[in-house]
Write a structure and sequence with these properties.
Layout (H helix, E strand, L loop, with lengths): L3 H35 L4 H7 L2 H29 L1
């Protein structure tokens, strides 16, 4: 049998970690956008903004948003039981 209290703690921990990832990603996106806005013709700025590390990190953030949403739906179903 699943321990519901432990499951709730695990869900809340996952929510916190996903929230941290999303916050960091939002910061990264804002810095990237600000860099591109202030240096639109700067090839170095564009190279940094389009670096695979940056684009991959932002993709991970979007996946974290989806995971957090799905986790919330799962949590809501558990609360309704």
């Amino acid at each position: 049998m699943i321990n519901l209290a432990r499951t709730r703690v695990l869900i809340e921990t996952a929510e916190w970690h996903l929230g941290q990832i999303i916050d960091l990603g939002d910061s990264l996106r804002a810095r990237r956008d600000r860099l591109l806005a202030t240096e639109p013709g700067n090839g170095v700025a564009r190279a940094i903004a389009e670096d695979p590390f940056v684009t991959n990190a932002l993709e991970i953030v979007e996946r974290a948003r989806v995971a957090l949403d799905e986790l919330g739906k799962w949590k809501d179903r558990g609360d309704a039981s």
